[in-house]
Amino acid sequence: MKEYNPKEIRFIVNGKRVTVKAHPLTRLLDVLREDLKLTGVKEGCGEGECGACSVLLNGRLVNSCIIPVGSVDGMEVETIEGYRKSKKYSVIEDSFAEESAVQCGFCTPGFVMAAEALLSKNPAPTEAEIREGISGNLCRCTGYDPIVKGIKRASEKGKGLW
Description:
Layout (H helix, E strand, L loop, with lengths): L6 E7 L2 E7 L5 H8 L18 E4 L2 E4 L12 E3 L1 H4 L3 H12 L9 H14 L5 H7 L10 H14 L5
Helix pairs in contact: 3-6
């Protein structure tokens, strides 16, 4: 049987340098939730198909349940806990509320991170571009129309932020 050898992995989470001691193949999701206590990142499917675990890795939207923590050494991770301190988050939060784009809230952090990733690349997306931008995120309660409207409203209200 092969011995478990944890490694020190250094990266930035929500603007803070962290060092974790973990097996390099441990899922980033598990390190964020269990070691760093960032529970806004959720586990839905565990297979990278639902988006509940979405984070920004060097500004790119990824599913943390399929990212080995060893691969983020030296990189920057932003979770919903860090993002919610920004003015852009407030615009998305208000826009989602105005469009009734939230019900149970389980998928909401992933949708917010997907909205940020989309709007930072394309500040004025069409409905089709929004639907494509959130295509990796699943919602079982709200439905997609209010979420699409919330992102569209955020793009209009947040002109100049993205």
